[in-house]
Amino acid sequence: MCSDRAVIMDVSPLIVYFEDFWSLDDAAAAALCERITYKRVKRRGFLLRPGEICQHFNFVLSGCFKMYKVDQKGNSHNLQFAPENNWIMDHGSFYEGKSSELYIEALEPSEVLQIKNNDLFELYDGFPVFDRNFRIVTENAFIEQQKRVLHTISSTAEERYLYFLKRYPDLSNRISNVQIASYIGVTPEFLSVIRKKLATT
């Protein structure tokens, strides 16, 4: 617990998350607690908008976020979903310090733990375990992005939907067809056709 914060936080979900990589000792966990902040976000609230610089790594405690881009015609293209125990941020904006072109929006009332860039770099310097762990987080994000690009250019709409179900097994009943359709690059009507077809096979 971070009892000296204005908002008392339980960072144990994040510490447990790191158990899958390199565990944190007491000193590292305390350093993390000192540098982490808690944020509650209403449904349709934003962590990031175009023109802003992404300044935080965001770990989702509860709820779900989407990261998306709006094209010149006003169409939204969902790039990522982040339910509980997932990270969401614009890596390019975060590391390059440049304005983002993306939105990060809450699809549900949500809670996140945030680590600001300067605080993260201090953790890297003081505790090698964080450099290792966040390198894995970044590498996993890159691998997932690569898989998504490959599916987009080489898979059928049905295959992309099946990949969505595999990637986000708990979201099909939590988010709307409109959001899923935007992620796989089809209309909601065509997604309904895909779902009906799969239900009968």
What does this structure look like?
This protein is α+β, with helices and mostly antiparallel strands. The chain has eight helices and eight strands. Strand 4 (65-70) and strand 5 form a beta hairpin.
Oligomer: single chain
Class per helix and strand makeup = alpha+beta
E-strand count: 8
How much helix, percentage-wise, in residues?
A: 40-55%
| H/I helix tally | 8
Major sheet: size, sense and barrel closure? 4 strands, antiparallel
Strand content: 15-25%
Unreliably modeled segments: 3-8
Ends: how far apart? 49 Å
Radius of gyration: 18 Å
Report mean pLDDT, rounded to a whole number. Answer: 92
Quick one: overall form?
globular
Write the layout of secondary structure elements.
Layout: H1 12-18, H2 26-35, E1 36-41, E2 46-48, E3 56-62, E4 65-70, E5 76-82, E6 87-88, H3 91-96, E7 103-106, E8 110-116, H4 117-126, H5 128-154, H6 157-167, H7 177-184, H8 188-199
Looking at this protein, list some descriptive labels.
21% strand, four-stranded antiparallel sheet, single chain, 201 residues, 8 helices, alpha+beta
Brief synopsis:
By secondary structure, this protein is an alpha+beta fold.
